[in-house]
């Protein structure tokens, strides 16, 4: 017998001896095993094992990052997590060496040094609660003192369009600053009435003071109405407030937050002398704000938000109606069925307990047995929304701080998951350990646009896009964000929100609001970047704007079309020690209707506009900032939308001219197939006197399927256009010529008023 066979026999004998020695210790198993019951009890484990086998097999053939959907993939710079980028690594190495340059082979930075560098970056700009999630997946930019996500690291133009039209688009709008005003309700209303638009509903309107709906308005400089527009605002009253002790929240864009805050503090300080004090608190680090837009927004929120009452019946009884109203919304096809701006207050569980959540399929029908409301009863409830349904504990600062201090750590949740008998099952809600998170839900009809002036004088628009705004404590911002993303919401940055406004034909602040300081600052930054890019190109490879006759090609010179009179010194105002000159931006049905009224001439229109604005300001208790004789059409602007007539796109900073060629206008109106008009070479070129406005945002609209532009024009130019169409009896109204500043060619477009 060979040596190999001897070793094999020895191993076999040893194994048999081992089995005999341990045979007495083996327990006896009695009874019968039901195969069906046994398999059913272990079905989830079997499915998990099969999924793991499939994933492992796929990992052998495909890269690991392709196993996730594209919108969930992240951007990894390196597998060495303790390293920075090359330019940051070199700069930090010089700091550590106290002036001595360290060789490249020794430039290894430890984790503590990395954190020091990240903290120094954070001190320069503010971070949102979802900053760490965004920096791994999106391009980040510095805007208005924040480090914000601009766009994903992949082509997302059409993905964003499909998201807000078919699924849901998620955007972190926590950079919208929130101010809290505490004091007597009448005094708060008196302060805000001095700054807000008098032609819009007042902050003290009965529809808003109940706290069941949010309101929108515009803020003007103190004593500057109607010329010095600052920014649009959104406000909400606390439902349970009393006339002597009321609370109001104001949301302001970060580009104008400091100006509005300083203005309110100066006005509120004067109330201390009168004995009526109004306190102003900054809540920018207390609240996180998420905005969802799309038909699946309500389904995603229904899957994420679990009211505490469903698992803790001993909770506060005044929140029961909130839970019933929230679950009753499942009976509705869309959130657009309830009034616009409706507020719902809830106290929900930590979303990490059931992470990851999945929204119900779009074709699934709601279960009528899970709610006490039928669809007809729910619709009747929405017409008279109860004030109790808008109550929320998020108004109380002590409760917000308590939620932050008692937040369960991730390590504790992992230990609880390890102790669960079934892997992958959700964690139960423990009242004594888990947090009760107060939130606010605000319903929105349409895209993320300014709902205070839904003016459509030239075209009817009936489409509505379901949208919701979720407000949660800052400490739980990242938790809700991850749950919404994994439930199916598509994320978007600043560019995505700008594109949503553009595709739907709405103006977006501050990109499309001329005469405001935020618009001027944005144009200064983007114009300097465009000019630097143009100067980097060789002279023979770049456009010669001087030869083409374009003045200020990298900026939008609205001063050329808004010509104030020499005596109108009141048109100048100082923002942050900088004197700016702006015109009057006409907004709302009242003022635009007076402008488009062709019954009178220029003088009668100016008189009607001055009288309307002066009477509204006097009735509201505002100081009329401009002399009536100085408010002329030459110093007024109107927001407009342009639609390309025969193909082609409209670029940003494009010029808008009047069409003086009557012969071409008649031939174009008589042409049956206007899409065949490819050239405008026969059109008489306009002059500088025909310039009436500019395009602030241009491109190709995926909603309308044609070139589109959002911009503004002078009120005098719009009046001349209306007068020209009426006097010359043109069958096609409001035809204008647009020049994209890349050549001397022009594009024909139709103008409509926003």
Coarse structural class? alpha+beta
Helix amount: 25-40%
Strand order of the largest sheet: 10-11-12-9-3-13
Mean pLDDT: 79
Radius of gyration: 32 Å
Distance between the termini: 100 Å
Inertia-based shape? globular
For the biggest sheet, the summary is:
6 strands, mixed
Count of beta strands: 22
Number of helices: 24
Strand content: 15-25%
Low-confidence stretches: 14-24, 60-66, 77-82, 101-110, 364-373, 447-462, 564-579
Kindly summarize this structure in a few lines.
This protein is 33% helix and 18% strand.
Structure description:
The structure is a single chain. By secondary structure, this protein is an alpha+beta fold. Among the domains are: 85-124, no CATH class; 295-454 and 462-476 and 483-488, no CATH class; 524-753, no CATH class. The strands form 5 sheets. Strands 10-11-12-9-3-13 form a 6-stranded mixed beta sheet. A 6-stranded antiparallel β-barrel has the order 17-20-19-18-21-22. A hairpin with an 8-residue loop joins strand 6 and strand 7. Helix 7 (157-166) packs across helix 18 (494-504) and helix 12 crosses helix 17. The longest helix has 20 residues, at 517-536. Mean pLDDT is 79; it is low at 14-24, 60-66, 77-82, 101-110, 364-373, 447-462 and 564-579. It comes from Absidia glauca (Pin mould). Residues 467-556 form the POPLD domain. Residues 671-753 form the POP1 C-terminal domain. Residues 8-21 have a biased composition (Polar residues). One of its GO terms (biological process) is tRNA 5'-leader removal.
